[in-house]
Amino acid sequence: MGMGSYQADSVLAQGLGWIDEQTRAITPPIHVSSTYLRDADNQYRSGRVYARDQNPAFDQAEAVLSKLEGAHQTLLFASGMAAATAVFQALQPGDHVLAPKVMYWSLRNWLMTFAVGWGLKVELIDMSDPQAVTAALQPGKTKLVWIETPANPLWMLTDIAATAQAAHAAGALLAVDSTVSTPILTQPLALGADIVMHAATKYLNGHSDLIAGTLGTRVDSEYWQRVRKVRAQVGGTLGSFEAWLLLRGMRTLHLRVRAACASAQKIAEHFNGHPLVAEVLYPGLPGFTGHAIAKAQMKGGFGGMMSIRAKGNAAVSGEAAAIAVAAHTQLWKRATSLGGTESLIEHRASVEGVGTPAPTDLLRLSVGIEHVDDLIGDMEQALVAAHA
Ligand SMILES: Cc1ncc(COP(=O)(O)O)c(C=O)c1O
């Protein structure tokens, strides 16, 4: 059943409406076999040989994501990092790639160490500036442009359609880390991107109990076949139980994302201009740089991620105030990661270390689905306690 023209909500709630043909079960069984029977005449009519990359446990979650993203095909990976690095491993040593200066720090580290050592020519630029993108593209040499929008931890926006056009004009592909926006708010492939990536660890699964990643492609291509080979050969694939958990988590993706967006908007507006807060960074604030792009390419909300910068005073620096705020929250949990039902707070510069673009007074907030008044109240008391 393809669920043809049904909305994302219906696709998600029913996991595309698939049932297990053998048992008529509404939720799928968890396939755990690592290998498949060869027919007596030496053929594999099941189409499956070995579970490293042909596990039926992947099929339904991949099909749901392809439907949501308008993708030709989706692949599950063992983590967001396994998915993201496969995009680069499918290139060739010597290829030039552009990536943002502000992006998920661990992938930036991998690019500047392992990928550079392996021979990729990685150039980090300001992806919120279309002129910087055009100037850095080297026609014929640049093979891939990687963007993250909104981008950790400052939530800078990149115009996906404009960047796709510029990349294609130079003969490069555009890959988008859409983890923060989720397929509920943005479909990068429809805006011209070639590859969409998610750390499924975050909103897609949504319950902070699983590490997973996904890649979707707009079209089949020689490049995509290399990505498939990277997954099959390197083997960064998901376990059967994790694939099943991901599918279960996705059944409520639309509800969770909309709730987080609504609360994040209220929280951002509440603390914007607050006497103990130096700045609120949130794409949904009309005064935020990039708000117009966010409005154009994020539909139905501006995401659940924001950062606030704590104000210092004569007695306490902004950094000390920020760390003290995190120490005093009770409902907001002090932890890294994002996109779960529970709200998280973290002093981002401490996590990212040397070279971080995060100001030392910045707290990254992942807004969950608790009652928004409780979240605001807890943050209020933590801000006051931090400055006492
Ligand atoms: C935007 C973004 N991309 C990629 C990743 C990597 O995902 P994973 O932790 O599943 O490897 C993360 C994880 O924090 C992320 O926030």
Strand and helix layout:
Layout: H1 8-13, H2 51-54, H3 59-69, E1 73-77, H4 80-89, E2 96-100, H5 105-118, E3 121-125, H6 130-136, E4 142-148, H7 160-169, E5 173-177, H8 182-185, E6 195-199, E7 213-217, H9 222-234, H10 240-250, H11 253-271, E8 277-281, H12 291-297, E9 305-310, H13 318-328, E10 333-334, E11 344-347, H14 348-352, E12 362-366, H15 372-386
Helix pairs in contact: 4-5, 13-15
Pyridoxal-5'-phosphate binds at residues 79-81, 84, 104, 107, 148, 152, 177, 179-180, 199, 201, 211, 213, 337-338.
Structure characterization notes:
By secondary structure, the protein is of the alpha/beta class. The protein is 38% helix and 15% strand. The chain has 15 helices and twelve strands. The protein has helices at 8-13, 51-54, 59-69, 80-89, 105-118, 130-136, 160-169, 182-185, 222-234, 240-250, 253-271, 291-297, 318-328, 348-352, 372-386; strands at residues 73-77, 96-100, 121-125, 142-148, 173-177, 195-199, 213-217, 277-281, 305-310, 333-334, 344-347, 362-366. The strands form two sheets. It has a seven-stranded mixed sheet with strand order 1-7-6-5-4-2-3, with helices on both faces. β4 (142-148), α7 (160-169) and β5 form a beta-alpha-beta unit. α13 crosses α15 (372-386). 49% of the residues are buried. The model has no long low-confidence stretch (mean pLDDT 97). The protein binds pyridoxal-5'-phosphate (PLP). Pyridoxal-5'-phosphate binds at residues 79-81, 84, 104, 107, 148, 152, 177, 179-180, 199, 201, 211, 213, 337-338.
